[in-house]
Amino acid sequence: MAPFLDHVDDEETTSNKSRVTVIGSGNWGSVAAKLIASNTLKLPSFHEEVKMWVFEETLPSGEKLSAVVNETNENVKYLPGIKLGKNVVADPDLEHAVRDSDMLVFVTPHQFMEGICKTIVGKIRKDAQAISLVKGMEVKKDGPCMVSAIISEKLGINCCVLMGANIANEIAEEKFSEATVGYRENKKTAEKWVQLFNTPFFSVSPVQDVEGVELCGTLKNVVAIAAGFVDGLEMGNNTKAAIMRIGLIEMKAFSKLLFGSVKDNTFFESCGVADLITTCLGGRNRKCAEAFVKNDGKKSFDELEAEMLQGQKLQGVLTAKEVYEVLSDRGWLELFPLFATVHEICVGRLPPTAIVKNIVHTSPAPFIMELCSTPPNEAIM
Amino acid sequence: MAPFLDHVDDEETTSNKSRVTVIGSGNWGSVAAKLIASNTLKLPSFHEEVKMWVFEETLPSGEKLSAVVNETNENVKYLPGIKLGKNVVADPDLEHAVRDSDMLVFVTPHQFMEGICKTIVGKIRKDAQAISLVKGMEVKKDGPCMVSAIISEKLGINCCVLMGANIANEIAEEKFSEATVGYRENKKTAEKWVQLFNTPFFSVSPVQDVEGVELCGTLKNVVAIAAGFVDGLEMGNNTKAAIMRIGLIEMKAFSKLLFGSVKDNTFFESCGVADLITTCLGGRNRKCAEAFVKNDGKKSFDELEAEMLQGQKLQGVLTAKEVYEVLSDRGWLELFPLFATVHEICVGRLPPTAIVKNIVHTSPAPFIMELCSTPPNEAIM
Question: Gene3D superfamilies of this UniProt entry (chains A, B) (predicted)?
Fold first, then answer.
C-alpha cells in the first residue's frame, strides 16, 4: 500500500476519535488517568494516548515530576508503585496539554479551578466536553456555585461530574468500586463518559442530576470531618453511625434547598450513601479530624494537612467553611446543626465534644426530615 | 400517720404505675434492663422494680445465672463488668416474671419467641402492652411473619418495636446512641415506650411504621454478613461501601414489596442507614462472616457461632435463609441478587467471591431502584 493512502486512511480513522486530557495528577488524578488509559487502548472511539497535565514540582532528587512520570510511567509522588499505562503522557504545559482534546477531565483541588479556567479559556476545542471529579464549591456574592458550573460558565462548554465511593489507592489496586456520572440533558454524552471510565472493577452508572451528584461528593467531606471527631473522641460505632445518618440527612436537605432539581434516588447511588460510608471509614478528612482531636486542637488543620497528607489537600475543612457561609447568609444555621458545628469546631470556636452535644435532640429538625421525604422529581432513571 | 392509711395511700399511688418486665437477659436484654431501670427510678409513672426473665443456666462455678445476677447486680455471662441497677430483679420463672406487668419488653433470639408466647399466653395482664427488640422473621406457608405480629397474634396484645444503631456494649458504657420506636396507631403508647427507654445518651424517636422499622432491624443482619465476606476477602472500603449501598436498596425494596405501608423516611432513621452502618462495622454477624472466609469455609457458621460468640446467637444466617425462602417462593430471586447470594454462600453453594461477582452489573435492578423512589405514604412523621 502506498504511504500516501496509508496516511489518508489513518487520518480518516482518527479524525472521529476522541482525545482525552486529564487536568490534574494528584492521587485521584493519577488513578483516573490509569483507568482511562486502560480503556482508550481497547476502545476504537478514543485515541490511545491520554494526556495528563502535571502541576510541575521539583522532587527531592532534583528531577522534575513530569519527567519522572514519563520515564518511569509512575507518579512517584502521589501514586507510587502503580504503573499508569504506557499511553499516559505527562505534560507540565497546561495550554499544550488541553489544546487538541475534546474530552477534558478536571481533577484538581477545587481552589485551583478558577486559575486553570483562566489559563485555558479560548484555547480549547470548541467541541470540547468536560467532566469534573473535583469536590467543593465556591461561595460568591449571589450564592454558592458548584465547580461544574464554574467550568461550564468560564469555558462555555458542557460539564458532567463523576463522584462515588472511590478511595483512589483501592481503585489503583483494582479492587471493585462503583461510581456515578451526573449529567444535565444529553444522555449520549453521559454514556461516552461512562464508556471512558467503566472497567470490570470500576462500575459507573449515569444519573440525570449534576447538582445532586456533585453536592454529594462535596458535602460528604464535611460529614467525614464530623466522623473523624467522633473517632478522635473514641465514642464508638453507634455514635459514629448516628453522626453519619444525621450528616446524610443534612446533605440531602441542603442539596434540595439549593437546587429543586436534586433527586432523592441520587442519595442511594454510589455518590451518595456509599461514598459517605467509604469516606467516613478511610478518607483523609476523617483521618485529619481524628488527629485534630487527639492533639487537643493544638495543631491546626493546616499543620495536620502539611504533616499527614504529603502534599495532598484537605477539602472538608474548606467546604465546611463555604457551607457555613451559605447557612449563615440564608438564615439556615439552626436547620443544619451538624454542618454548622463542624465549622465551629474547625476554627476553634467550639470544642470537639460539641459534635454530639449540639446535635442531640435538635437534629434533624422536623422540617429537614420532611424535606427529605418530598416526592422525587418526575424524571427517574 | 396510721399504718392503714399509709397502706391505702401507697396502693392508690402505685395502682396507676406501670410495671415493666424484660423478657430476655442476653447482651442486649441486659443493656435494655439497665436503660429501663435508670428511668423507672426517676419517673413517677413507673414502678421502680424492673423484672428480667433469665433463661436459667448453670455457670462453670456451679451457681445459677439468675442467682448470680441478683447477688452481684451484674449479668456475669452476657454483660460482665456492668452494674444493671439495684432495681433490676432477675427471675428464672417466666410466668412469674410477666404476670403483674403491663409493659413487656421482648428481647431474645427470635427462634425462642414461639415457645415463650406459648408459655405465657393467658397468663399476662389483659391491659399489657408489648415492645419487641427481637430481630428476625418466621416464614410460614402463607408468607413471612414479623416477630411483632407473632406477639400480637399469639398474646392478643398490641406490639411496638425498638430498633437502631445499638451495639449493646457501647450503650452499656453510656456512649451516645440513637434508636427508633415503630408504632402502629396509638402514638401515646409509643411515647410511653420512648419515655421508658430514652436517656441523655440514648435518644429514641417514634415512627408510625412497625413493619419498616422491624424489617430494617432484621434485614441489616443479612447485609452485615455480606460486609463480613468483603472484609474476609480484604477487598477494601470501596467494595464494602458498594455492598452496603446495594444492601440498603434491597432492604428498602424488599420491605416495600412485602408491606405497602412501609415509609421511605424510615430508612433515614436510626433503625435504617445508621443501624446498617454500625452493624457492618462492628457487629457479630460481620465478624463471623469474616471468619468464615478466613477459614476458607471449612468451619460452618454453627461452629463459628459456638467458638466466637460465647453463647450469643447469630441472626444473619438464619434471616438470610428466611429471606431466601420468601424470594424463592415469590419468584423474586433475580431481583435481589445480594440477599440471594448471601444465603448461597452461607450454605456453601457459592464461594465467598460471588458476593461481588454476582451483583456487579446486575444489581440493583431498575425495577428495584424505581420501587425505592415511589412517593412516601401520606402520613409523614
Answer: N-(1-d-carboxylethyl)-l-norvaline Dehydrogenase, domain 2 (1.10.1040.10), NAD(P)-binding Rossmann-like Domain (3.40.50.720)
Considering only residues 326 to 365 of chain B, which have any Cβ-Cβ distance to chain A shorter than 8 Å? Answer: 356, 360-361
Q: What is the pTM of this model?
A: 0.90
Q: In Å, how far are A146, A153, B178 from A141, measured between CA atoms?
A: 14, 16, 39
pLDDT at B141 over 80: no
Residue listed under C-alpha cell 454478613: B225
Closest CA in chain A for residue B266? A373
The number of helix segments (H) and strand segments (E) in chain A equals 17, 10
DSSP letter string, A182-200: E-SS-HHHHHHHHHHH-BT
Contact (Cβ atoms closer than 8 angstroms) between residue B225 and residue B283: no
Selecting from A171, A265, A273 the residue whose C-beta is nearest the C-beta of B373 gives A265
pLDDT values of chain A reduced to their tens digit, one per residue, 381 residues? 333 333 444 444 456 899 999 999 999 999 999 999 999 999 999 999 999 999 999 999 999 999 999 999 999 999 999 999 999 999 999 999 999 999 999 999 888 999 999 999 999 999 999 999 999 888 877 778 999 999 999 999 999 999 999 999 999 999 999 999 999 989 999 999 999 999 999 999 999 999 999 999 999 999 999 999 999 999 999 999 999 999 999 999 999 999 999 999 999 999 999 999 999 998 899 999 999 999 998 999 999 999 998 777 788 999 999 999 999 999 999 999 999 999 999 999 999 999 998 887 555 666 777 776 654 433 222
Categorize the per-residue pLDDT at B339 as very low, low, confident or very high, splitting at 50, 70 and 90: very high
Nearest CA to CA, how far is A48 from chain B (Å)? 26
Q: Which residues of A touch B253 (CB under 8 A)?
A: none
C-alpha pair distances (Å), B191 with each of A48, A242, B160, B293: 65, 21, 11, 43
Q: Does A208 touch chain B if contact means CB atoms closer than 8 Å? A: no
- The residues of A annotated as belonging to the active site are 220
B277 in contact with chain A, both atoms CB, cutoff 8 A: yes
Residues of B recognised as catalytic: 220
Answer whether B268 sits within 8 Å of A370, measured CB to CB.
Answer: no
The answer for A 141-170 residues in CB contact with B (under 8 A) is 165-167, 170
* Cβ burial A283-319 (10 Å sphere, 16+ → b, else e): bbbbbbbbbbbeeeeebebeebbeeeeeebbbbbbbb
Which residue out of B235, B277, B380 would a mutagenesis test of the A interface target, given it has the greatest number of A Cβ atoms within 10 Å?
Answer: B277
Task: Give residue-wise pLDDT tens across range A160-175.
Answer: 999 999 999 999 999 9
Q: Which amino acid is at A330?
A: R
Asked if B165 and A242 come within 8 Å (Cβ–Cβ), the reply is: yes
Within 8 A of B369 by CB-CB distance, chain A residues are 265, 268, 380-381
- Scanning B246-265 for CB atoms below 8 A from A yields 248-249, 252, 263-265
| Structural domains in chain B plus CATH codes | 2-208 (3.40.50.720), 219-380 (1.10.1040.10)
* Contact assessment for residue A37 and residue A88, using Cβ atoms and an 8 Å cutoff: yes
Asked if B18 contacts B47 with a C-beta cutoff of 8 angstroms, the reply is yes
Is the dihedral angle over the CA atoms A141, A145, A147, A149 positive or is it negative? negative
Residue contact B268–A203, C-beta within 8 A: no
Cα–Cα distance, B245 to A164 (Å, whole number)? 11
Question: What are B339's three cell numbers?
Answer: 440477599
- What Cα–Cα distance (Å) separates residue A55 from each residue in A70, A242, A247? 14, 40, 34
Q: Hey, is the C-beta of A174 within 8 angstroms of any chain B C-beta?
A: no
Q: B208, B234, B239, B245: best mutation site toward chain A, by most A Cβ within 10 Å? A: B245
In the numeric block, which cell numbers belong to residue B313? 446467637
B166 Cα to chain A: minimum distance (Å): 6
List the Cα angle A335/A341/A342 in 5-degree steps: 120
B268·A249 Cβ contact <8 A: yes
